[in-house]
Design goal:
The radius of gyration is 18 Å and the shape is elongated. It is about 80% helix and about 5% strand. Strand 1 and strand 2 form a beta hairpin. The longest helix has 30 residues. With about 140 residues, the protein is mostly helical.
């Protein structure tokens, strides 16, 4: 398998694994007493939005689950693109978008998270970058 395809596949799988890992961790991490107290405080902070009500914890939980889903979906979408594209050159606009999205993801991960998301988004950035740099026929 060509280097461009291998690196693209590794990059995409890195995002898929990040999404799965994020969701599993979110749903299974045990809560400490301090976390339980903070969750109760977040639930007590109610906001009015577009005629409805929500609490800060529901946003926190929703954003977290959405993040896992979107990482999984973005990686899977790229794997499907690779599968459906066969041996044809990958579209340059998709490669550039992937590099941009993963670059921003790495920066945000460094700013706000810990080593696992930094490594996984870094692998994705590296993989998509290698893929575009080794592309023979840029379309």
């Amino acid at each position: 398998m060509e280097m461009r395809l291998r690196s693209y596949r590794v990059a995409s799988w890195s995002l898929v694994l990040g999404g799965i890992g994020h969701t599993v961790a979110d749903l299974t991490t045990p809560q400490t007493a301090a976390q339980s107290k903070l969750i109760l405080e977040m639930k007590a902070f109610v906001v009015q939005i577009l005629g409805g009500t929500a609490n800060v914890f529901s946003f926190y939980q929703g954003f977290s689950l959405m993040m896992g889903l979107l990482l999984f979906g973005y990686g899977t979408l790229n794997l499907l693109l690779l599968k459906n594209n066969g041996q044809a050159p990958l579209p340059t606009n998709i490669l550039l978008l992937n590099c941009l999205i993963t670059l921003i993801s790495v920066v945000l991960s460094i700013q706000y998270f810990f080593i696992v998301p930094i490594v996984l988004t870094g692998i994705a950035l590296l993989g998509y970058s290698v893929s575009i740099l080794t592309q023979k026929n840029i379309t």
